[in-house]
Design brief:
CATH architecture of the largest domain: 6 Propeller
Shape: elongated
CATH superfamily of the largest domain: Kelch-type beta propeller
Low-confidence stretches: 283-288, 304-311, 453-460
Mean pLDDT: 83
Structural class: alpha+beta
CATH topology of the largest domain: Neuraminidase
Largest sheet: 5 strands, antiparallel
Amino acid sequence: MEVLSPAHILSNLSDLREEGLLCDIELQVEGEMISAHRALLAAVSPYFKVLFSGGFKEVTQKVIEIKGVSFNGLKGVIDCCYETTLDLNTDNLSDILSAATLVQISQIIDHCKVFMSDNLSELTCFLFLNLAEKFFMQDVKEKTVEYILRNFTTVRKVDEFKEISKDSLIQYLSHDHLNVKGDESEAFYAAKDWLQADPDRMQFTEEVLKNIRFHMMDSHDLCDIGDMNIIDSRKECRVFIREALAFNSKQLDLAKPLKSDFRARPRGREGILVLESLEGRNVPVDGWQSLKENHVYLCPLTREKEHQDNSTGIQSNTKKHMQLQTVNKFVRNSTYLMEVNNFVFLFATDNESFEPVAMRYEPARNEWISLTPAPCDQFDGRAVVGSSIALIDEGGEIYIYLISGMPVSKESTFDSDKPCSRKVLRYDIAYDTWKVMPDIPTASYYSAAIGRSSNGYYPVDEFIYVTGGNEPLDKESKTKTYAFDVRANLWLCKPPMKYGRYAHCMALVNNMLYVIGGYGADRIETFDIIEEQWTDLENVNINVAGSCAIVRDETILILGGKSNNNLSSDVMVFNTRDQKVKVHKKCLPQPMWCPIGALIVHPALL
């Protein structure tokens, strides 16, 4: 039971100080005196504790001069030691921080951090950023930079913006998260205003403007900007405009995804683009033919600082999902997405005509365009479902492979009485054309494939790996593993999996192939693509079929699928480092069978 409260004792000490009683130390700052009690200062400040008890000359001195801080700053800190309250504002913040840092009172420093975080605005952000850098407040600095990036279109108009350093300006202009509200010219005019604020800065014009993503501007804005003296008078800057105009020309439209130049990448944040599932839409089977379009959703990933125990940043709040431009056809039966330099390619079967469909999504413009579909004549005039899909970079030329599958028609969704196709087709992104490749040795549907290459997407030689799949006429197809050697144009047999499976998914992390779930197995198997050995992860069970795997850093996101005959809207996260699985409930916009997803950067998430 508390008899004497600390607050009461502290209040009495404050009264004694006000009356000048029992004060045994005078702090001299800028020629003015601050009276205090040594015991109290030593109790709250490690600095004063050492000063008054560490064998220094100040132990016996009645007056101690304190240098390096202001009188108002130190008085505010000492007053807070007695009164426990602190009236902070933008005028005294710097002085208080200097004094609190000197005397090492962490509680006051933390209070200043909270004040700065709670009072961020376009008028205070640059002051707070300077203080955060001066006093090594990394968390406040990161939050302030985030605020500047998020509110750039208003922040750039305050006078303090023109006083920032060149390095800071380049940091903002080069950042993927710079929110220009879909108008890259905002970044250009911010750079232009900063350069013209001081004639001495004009020498940095090219160094600054090369961080503008001119490729993201429309031709009208590019022409207007190109006529300005700051551009027209400099050869290097004129090249920026010419290259951007060429990028936006129709002649180079098909080749856009092949441009890895950062200037062709939209500013935005990471999210997962998913196409709605036919089964998850809750439409009766007899109503499927009436569906005319697919909804497309963007599932945001949280920012790194918002999830301490979840390195994936999955958001389970479905209200935060964004609906993007719909696909103007309803596609079904083994639809596939493939991300290439932030463009998304879709390959599917039209719900009404049962003809192949190919489309491409451009996040910067939120639009789908039609491409040349896979040729039906390779499959007796039928579309093919249950294919596997892989992406590979062959010396800078990027191709998408569609591998095997089962022919379908209006009369029979799955022609189970017919053997699966062994056909392999290669799609050329640059020319929108298809080429027939060597047949895979064993035909199947619902296999899984992944491609990797030495100089592009993955860090080994050019191979496409295909595992498992279902072929009613070949029971061993479920365990088979093949590798297609792109250079030799040849299929190779690899060691089979321990467990037969189909409708599974695969992912590649650090030269290790992960085979996950599917019908026939609930274990994860790994294949070391260097040693060519399979390993069974005995302690990791994932009982899901028809899911989709997306790699983010060293984690694998496993989207949707069917578990115990129930469709799922969950996302399972498998951490390849500790081999643990975490389930995040209802992260997808609907329960999904064979969901298709792609990890992209999208401007809408800013």
